[in-house]
Each structure stands twice: as C-alpha cells, then as structure tokens.
Inverse folding.
C-alpha cells in the first residue's frame, strides 16, 4: 500500500520528507490523484498531503501586497473580501476553475506547481507580477512566477522544497480587471484559450497602462511587454484592439490537441482582446 | 411521508427515490461477497490483426492468479450477439477492433489481476484496417468478417413508397445536402459490471448491470454452451444505461470466469477507459438527402442514402439502421420516398443501441432539410412543418397508415402559441455585443416497441403476500427511467393500496417472468398493459375470496380498500392479512401476458429487415431553442429551451418531465460537444476530461409541455416518452444557429471551433 503522510507543521513535513525523499507532494489532489489510476495506486511512491498544514493556509495583506498561503483553496480565495475587492482578475479566473467541488479541494499552490499552460490562476498571477516563495528545511527563496514555471508541467521546484506561498502586488493602478476562458463547456473545462487583462483607462478613455496574459496558447502563459505597450495611449476602440489582437495572434505558439486546433486557439486568443470593449471600469 | 395511494396521473414520487438517496438500494456494482475474486480482460489494442502468438504461461504462474483463459477455453460457440452472433467472447484467431477481448484473467485481488494481465504475451500481426464507410465499401477492402456473405456490408436495405425517387423530377424545388454525425458514448455513471458464482448444483448465478436479463440468459447459453436452466440472472436497478447495456458486456466473460473459481464469487468492473474502448456506441452516420417540394411548401418526394458505421460487430446495427430509415422522412407526409441504407462493418468500436436508436442521427438531416426549404421558400419554418405534419390516417414516409394517436401537429401548435416563439423577434434584437441570437425549432418523433417480426411481449406477475401486501414482480429493468414507479401506480390504482404496502421485485430470471428488454420506449407500455390485466384479475380474486369470508352473496357490495376488503352494505371488513392466510399460495398470484399490436398494412418494401420494421406507435415532440452565438469564440450558449411532447396520456407528470429533461440534456451534449474521436479505430478521448458531456451550467431551464392525446392501446392511454426528447436538440440548435447567422451546419457536434470557422468563412466569402 502507498503511504500517505499528513504533516500538521512544517517541522513534521521536513521529517517525513527526509524519510521519503521521492514522495509526491500535494494538497487537494485534483491533479495528482486524477493522474494516478486506481490500478497503479499501489506502485506509486509515498504521498505527502499538505491539507492539514495550517501554517500555509492563509491570506494576508501588507501595505502594497497580498500574500496567499499555498494550501489556500480556490473556494477560500473566492470567499475572501481581500481577493474580491483587490484582485477581481484573479477572482474572475477562479470562478471558471473546475466546479464547486474542485474549488473546495484544489489550492492555488497546486495550480501553480502543476504548471499547466491551461492553469486558470496563472494568467492573472502573471500580470499581477506574482512571486512564489519556496521553502526547504534550510532555506527560503523567492522567484517571480514567470521564472518559476519553465515549461508545461515544469517548475524550478527542487527536491526537498515546497511552494509555501505566493505574493502579488496590489494592482491599485488599474481600473479594469478582466478574465475570460474559452473551454469546451461552462464548468469542469480545461482552457482552450484564456486571457487575463489589467488596464488603466483615463477619464477621457485613453489606455494609460496595460498588462495582458494569455493561457493555453504556448508552453507557458504568454505575455509580452511590446504588446502591452502597443495599447498605451490608444483609445479603447475596436480599431486599436483589433490591431493588437493581430499582434497577439502572431505572438502565440499554440498546439493542436484533442480539445482544439492551434488555428482556433490562435484566432481566439486575439479575439478575446476585443471583449475589453465591453469591460467596465471598477 | 404519510401513506398515500399511488394513482395514475399523479406526480407520485419515484418508488426507488428514498432507497437510492439513502444509499440503501444496491446497484449491481454494490454487490461483492465474502472471499471474492476479480476477473479482467486483456484487450487487443490493435484494430485489425491476426493473433500469431498468445502466451499465458507467465501470467498463469503468478501467485494469486486463479485462471487465465483464452478463446480455446470457451465452451460453446464462443459467439455472442443479439441477433447476429458474430462477436467472440474471447478472440480466436483474429481481432477486429482495439477493444476485442483476447484473454480473461481471474485473480485473488485487483493488483494481482493487473499484474497478470500485463504478463500475458500477445503478438498480433496487423492486418490493413477499414476505418471509414467508404474504405469498407471499396471492392478490394480488407474484410472485417471473412465469412460474412455480403463482405463488409452487414445490411443493405431499401424503403420505398409511392413513386420513389422518380417523383423528384416532377418537383418545383429539389434540395440536396449531406449531413454527418459522429460516434456518441452513453456515458452512464455505473460502468459495465457484474458478479457471478457457481452454486453447488452447477448452476451459475450472475448479478449484472443489464437492460435485458432474460435475453442475457439466451446469449450466454449460446456463447458458452450452457443449458438455459444452469443460468440465473439477477438485474438490479441500473446506474444508467441508455441502450449501452442492451446486449452482453461482462455477462459471458463473468459466467466463464465463474466456471473456474470453485464456487467463489467473481467480480468484473470495467473502468471508464475500458467502458469507452470495449462498450457499445451510437453509430456515426453519413446522410445524403434529396428533398422535393412544391412552391407552396408541400413535400413531394424524398430520396436519401444513409451510411451507418457499425464497427467491428453487428450488435443491433441492422435494427438501428432500420429504425433510422423508418424515420428518415421525419414526422411528415411525403407521398414518394426512396430511402436506402447501408450498415457497414469497420474496425472501429462496436456501435449499437442508444436512446434515439438510429433516429437521433436522421433527425439532424430531415430537420436540416426542412430549415433549408423554409429559407428557400421564404416560409416560416414552423408553418412549413405544420403544413406537412403527419395526421392520424395519413401514410408516413414508409407507407404505413397511421392508425394510432399522432400528435405532432398539436406539439407544433403548442410551440407556436408559446411566448418564446411569438416574442422571438424582439428577443433576437437584444443580442449583446459580439453575439448573435437565433431561435430554432425541430419536429421529431420516435417509434415505440420492437416493431414487426419480434413479439413485443411482457409477462406481469402480482402477488398478495402472506403479510397482506402487494408485490409486483417486474421482469423489465429500470435503468433510471422510472418504469417501476409506473408499475407501483398501476398496482395502486387498481388494487387501492397505500404506497407503503406495495413492493417491487426487480428482474430476476427465477422470480420474475420474461418481459423483454428495457428499450424502445416499451417498458411501461408493454409491461404496464400486462400488469393492468394481472392486477384486475387479482382484484377480482380478492373481492371474490373476501365474499366467502364476509358472507356476501354478491360482489357488487364489496370494495378493495387499503389493507382490507369491505362490504359497503353491511360495513363488515376483512383485513388482507386474513384474506391472504385463507388463500393458497397459487391463488394469491396472478400472471398475465400482453403482446404489443403491430402494423397491419401489407408493405412491399423493407423486406431486408428480418425484425424491427415497421412500427405502429410513435411518440412526437416539437422543440424550440433560443441560442446566443459568440462571434469571438464560436461558443453556442443555450438561453432557453421548450419541449412540447406527445406520448399519449401522462401517467406521472414528474416522471414524464424527468424523461423530457434528461433526454434534452443528453441531446444537448450530442449537439454541442459529444464526439468519440477515432484514429485508426483507436479512441483518443476515452475519459470525461476529453469526451465532453454537458454540465449543469450548459443545460438551460427547460420548459416541458405535455401535449396529451389518448393512445387506446396503451396502459391508461400512454406511450413511451424516454427517447423522443433525444432527437430534438441537435436539429433545433442547428436551426437556431442558422437563424442567428445564416450558417447551416451539416456536421455535428456544433463545437465552438466549427462554428467559429464557419463564421469566419462566411465573412471571407459572403
């Protein structure tokens, strides 16, 4: 039988990890356990489940940032006033993630560590300039999320290290938060393409600042400073957005898979930008 | 809940609701037993090939392995199949699709089973495969079944009426189009499973998730060479089936396994992936249509050619095609038809029965043609349908005279009078930015019962128990559709007993009587008719025997009441417990048979169909759907849905609506997202992460209107309602898309990707 460890403190966790260095670490298990067919469960290495590790389950605020413990569930985030008030772009993405059941189990740390190009929290985290905190028995290090995730399913997580939290800067300068996901159904859907956007619109309707991130159209979330900058100084109009949409289509590098063709993803990743015409300022 | 008498016409709660909600009801999959062992199958993994070498020796030696069996170990014919016996239980020299069973392993536990399955060495010399109907029909095509006299054509058939295709020449307008529908999976919750064991006397008992326990017995007997009296099949409530458990899945394998376990119980339970790979599917079909009409919209002539891909084995392929062909003209008066069908073997997964049996496919085509005709003529699509709608007394597209209830015109009228229809123009104008709105309708129908050539019979049995309760012995499975609740209502109505005093026995070949399969919308109709006769006989007996105890010289004063028989004139009563004690066991049981009536027309067509053509009874529905199409993504969002359904009288409004809603939900999946994707016969999406069934958010509020007629041959005037709702969503949604965008899609499902490509194409080539 596979051993499952349930540490309640970081100290316990390090002890278990010393004993089972090959152990797989998870919290909600909504990705890991699904990939582990029941028939092969017995041959899996040991599992360490962090769901009872209270130290990592938190949402805190500092003057200019919000810190989220890695084992905080999506449902907890969606209920939290800080997230709803300050990070609408993340809240919008969380609302599209899985189903209520998945959101009760899955965690933000898990969504980051799975590092799927389709991870729903990732485009918002990229434009919120998230930094992840990595803990091992001896050290703590901090990496920008775009450096932490290096490819589909690939991260900089080392042996003996866990992702303990993620910190985002408060996006006070932005008055438009927008996230949209295209999936094959309305819930329990893996993103075929997604877009997160933060815009600052002047009272006269000019774009003063912009950050865009696109999911499911490359090995990792796609962002580009040049694209963001191309919007600055423009009116929020069909013409300006259509021009940028075309640049997005040239930038992204989607694949064909069982869910959609690369062509479709490419077209839609540009089209999603046009939705900003309807986006309301907050 | 207080006791009530379950009566006809009331929204009586499901008889199984409490037991299922509390987890007390046992599905087949909940059956285990002490000292149980596990059986599993090694599958071919190759779509077409010859087995060169099959070495089970290493697997056999693994500790904990009880038996490893191959085609050589199968006694009997080693052939299963409902009508055509062409499917080996375990492959002999050839494999014909990836899911073919090559070896059967029985082991002490699941881990050992998996290990042993992996240790079997199978070497298969691949043969060229046929994966499309066109490939299969080439003169030099590799043969799926070398011994089949018609090569890869399982069945070629023709339905002809009036002057046939010649009449097209005289039509003012002739429209031509080709439609494609993909393979659909039943996606039931409870995957194929069962538990079997050999009893001391040599008899083998099998608890199995099945729609046809009595037919299973014959099928197992034929395949394994076991006499019928050595088989005992128990069929509990099913966790969904939709046609996918009509015909052997685990049955023959499990009984074979049980012959090698020394009396220990053996369980087999396919996981989801195995269910996809080895289970049955809805046929993919290509449909070529020519429809001829007058300029006033009167339909004149139809010619169609339908190509059904039936996969590696016959299952019910020919019968599915027969029903599709019978419905190919829609619920319309078309005096001249030629409907040709080819049901073709390929090396794809096995296609068979599924809700809307061949009809869900052609509904897309005939309603697509009606929408095209409406556009061509500039006619209101609903008026066009009403103008041509079949009426009682008309001859349908097969030339059958409709002598029974025929309510399609009433259904269309109900939709026409609904606010969703007459307020549609205003609603469409309110489309949000980057969206288009459209409203589509579909008129659909679905035959009931087996049709000519196969007696559609049920044997009902009802008993007054020694405890004074009523026990109904149902011989026809309840897979969730709720027929057993109707049986309780029938017993309650006639025998006037509280719901707590009525018991149900689920199908069991030793306790209940052969009543056919749970299929074809026939369960409540056929068994219900038999049960009415049995309950009426029991009622006569109970009052008759009570007369003796109550010293009544006439039966006129006696009334059967909850728990007792009362003489209304004298006020004297006798409890049913006392009555039961007086009656002999055989006197307390009533059995009655019902045989569904059939078409009387002497048709000079459809002669290739041995069974299953033509049908006497149809249920009808008109559907309306309001959709929003996202021009940026191609996503279709269903905003509202209306179904007007005619299935005779409604015995239970709640159960009726549940069938309508469930069928529409499944139909929405078929319309928008469900598609088994195949590459050289291999399923590339055998799981629910990639085979996309709708979730709760994808299903809109559904308004269900019951358009009641009275079907004189039905129990209390009813007809089956389980299937017809499946046929409407695809054509109505396609119609709504055409209404919104002018794009007539001819290939389903209507995925966002396909819709966006069509929208772009329209922009580029207006």
């Amino acid at each position: 039988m596979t051993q499952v460890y349930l540490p309640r403190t970081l100290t316990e966790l390090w002890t278990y990890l010393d004993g089972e260095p090959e152990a797989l670490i998870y919290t909600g298990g909504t990705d890991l356990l699904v990939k582990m067919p029941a028939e092969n469960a017995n041959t899996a290495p040991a599992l360490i489940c962090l769901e009872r590790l209270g130290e990592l389950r938190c949402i805190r605020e500092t003057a200019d940032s919000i810190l989220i413990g890695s084992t905080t569930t999506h449902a907890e985030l969606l209920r939290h006033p800080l997230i709803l008030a300050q990070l609408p772009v993340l809240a919008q993405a969380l609302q599209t993630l899985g189903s209520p059941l998945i959101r009760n189990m899955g965690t933000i740390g898990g969504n980051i560590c799975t590092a799927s190009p389709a991870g729903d929290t990732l485009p918002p985290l990229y434009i919120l300039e998230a930094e992840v905190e990595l803990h091992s028995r001896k050290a703590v290090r901090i990496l920008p999320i775009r450096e932490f995730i290096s490819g589909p399913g690939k991260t900089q997580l080392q042996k003996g290290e866990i992702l303990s939290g993620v910190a985002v800067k408060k996006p006070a300068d932005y008055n438009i938060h927008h996230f949209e996901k295209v999936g094959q159904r309305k819930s329990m859907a893996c993103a075929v393409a997604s877009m997160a956007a933060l815009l600052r619109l002047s009272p006269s309707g000019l774009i003063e600042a912009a950050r865009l991130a696109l999911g499911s159209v490359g090995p990792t979330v796609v962002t580009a400073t040049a694209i963001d900058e191309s919007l600055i100084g423009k009116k929020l109009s069909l013409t300006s957005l259509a021009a940028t949409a075309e640049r997005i289509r040239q930038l992204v590098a989607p694949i064909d898979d069982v869910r959609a063709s690369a062509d479709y993803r490419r077209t839609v990743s540009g089209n999603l930008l046009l939705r900003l015409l309807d986006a309301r300022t907050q | 809940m207080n006791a009530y008498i379950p009566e006809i016409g009331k929204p009586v709660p499901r008889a199984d609701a409490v037991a299922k909600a509390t987890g007390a009801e046992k599905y087949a999959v909940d059956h285990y037993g002490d000292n149980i062992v596990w059986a599993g199958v090694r599958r071919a993994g190759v779509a077409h090939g010859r087995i060169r070498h099959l070495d089970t020796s290493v697997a056999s030696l693994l500790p904990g392995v009880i038996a490893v069996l191959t085609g050589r170990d199968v006694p009997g014919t080693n052939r299963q199949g409902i009508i055509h016996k062409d499917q080996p239980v375990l492959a002999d020299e050839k494999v014909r699709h990836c899911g073919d069973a090559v070896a059967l392993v029985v082991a002490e536990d699941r881990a050992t089973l998996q290990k042993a399955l992996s240790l079997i060495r199978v070497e298969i010399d691949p043969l060229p495969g046929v994966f499309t109907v066109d490939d299969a029909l080439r003169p030099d095509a590799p043969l799926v079944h070398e011994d089949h006299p018609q090569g890869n054509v399982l069945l070629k058939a023709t339905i002809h009426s009036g002057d046939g295709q010649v009449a097209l020449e005289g039509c003012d307008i002739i429209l031509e189009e080709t439609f494609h529908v993909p393979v659909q999976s039943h996606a039931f919750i409870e995957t194929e499973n069962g538990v079997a064991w050999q009893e001391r006397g040599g008899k083998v008992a099998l608890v199995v998730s099945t729609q046809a326990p009595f037919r299973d017995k014959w099928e197992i007997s034929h395949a394994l060479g076991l006499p019928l009296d050595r088989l005992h099949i128990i069929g509990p409530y099913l966790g969904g089936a939709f046609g996918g458990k009509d015909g052997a899945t685990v049955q023959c394998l499990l009984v074979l396994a049980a012959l090698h376990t020394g009396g220990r119980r053996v369980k087999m339970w396919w996981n989801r992936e195995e269910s996809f790979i080895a289970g049955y599917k809805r046929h993919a079909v290509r449909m070529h249509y020519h429809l001829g009409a007058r300029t006033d919209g009167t339909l004149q002539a139809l010619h169609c050619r339908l190509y059904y891909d039936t996969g590696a084995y016959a299952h019910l392929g020919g019968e599915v095609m027969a029903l599709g062909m019978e419905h190919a003209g829609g619920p319309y008066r078309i005096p001249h038809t030629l409907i040709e069908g080819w049901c073709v073997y390929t090396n794809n997964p096995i296609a068979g029965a599924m809700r809307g049996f061949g009809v869900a496919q052609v509904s897309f085509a005939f309603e697509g043609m009606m929408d095209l005709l409406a556009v061509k003529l500039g006619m209101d699509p609903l008026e066009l349908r009403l103008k041509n709608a079949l009426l009682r007394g008309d001859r349908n597209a097969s030339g059958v005279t409709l002598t029974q209830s025929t309510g399609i015109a009433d259904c269309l009228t109900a939709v026409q009078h609904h606010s969703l229809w007459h307020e549609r123009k205003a609603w469409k104008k309110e489309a949000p930015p980057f969206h288009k709105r459209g409203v589509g309708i579909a008129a659909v129908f679905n035959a009931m019962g087996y049709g000519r050539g196969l007696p559609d019979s049920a044997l009902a049995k009802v008993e007054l128990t020694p405890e004074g309760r009523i026990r109904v012995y149902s011989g026809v499975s309840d897979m969730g559709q709720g027929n057993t609740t109707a049986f309780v209502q029938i017993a309650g109505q006639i025998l006037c007993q509280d719901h707590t005093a009525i018991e149900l026995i689920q199908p069991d070949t030793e306790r209940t009587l052969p009543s056919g399969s749970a299929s074809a919308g026939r369960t409540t109709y056929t068994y219900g008719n038999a049960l009415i006769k049995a309950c009426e006989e029991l009622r006569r007996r109970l009052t008759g025997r009570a007369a003796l105890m109550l010293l009544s010289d006439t039966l006129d004063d006696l009334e059967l009441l909850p728990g007792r028989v009362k003489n209304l004139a004298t006020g004297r009563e006798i409890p049913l417990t006392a009555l039961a004690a007086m009656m002999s066991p055989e006197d307390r049981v009533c059995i009655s048979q019902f045989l569904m009536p059939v078409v009387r027309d002497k048709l000079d067509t459809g002669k290739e169909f041995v069974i299953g053509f033509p049908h006497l009874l149809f249920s009808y529905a008109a559907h309306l759907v309001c959709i929003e199409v996202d021009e940026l993504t191609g996503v279709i969002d269903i905003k509202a849905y209306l179904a007007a359904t005619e299935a005779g009288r409604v015995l239970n409004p709640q159960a009726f609506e549940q069938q309508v809603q469930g069928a529409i939900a499944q139909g929405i999946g078929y319309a928008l997202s469900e598609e088994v994707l195949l590459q050289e016969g291999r399923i590339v999406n055998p799981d629910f992460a990639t085979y996309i069934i709708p979730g709760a958010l994808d299903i809109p509020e559904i308004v269900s209107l019951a358009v009641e007629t009275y079907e004189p041959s039905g129990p209390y005037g009813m007809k089956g309602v389980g299937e017809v709702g499946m046929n409407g969503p695809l054509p109505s949604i396609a119609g709504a898309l055409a209404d919104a965008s002018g794009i007539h899609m001819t290939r389903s499902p209507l995925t966002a990707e396909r819709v966006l490509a069509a929208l772009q194409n329209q922009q580029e080539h207006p």
Summary: Chain B touches chain A through 30 residues (CB under 8 Å).
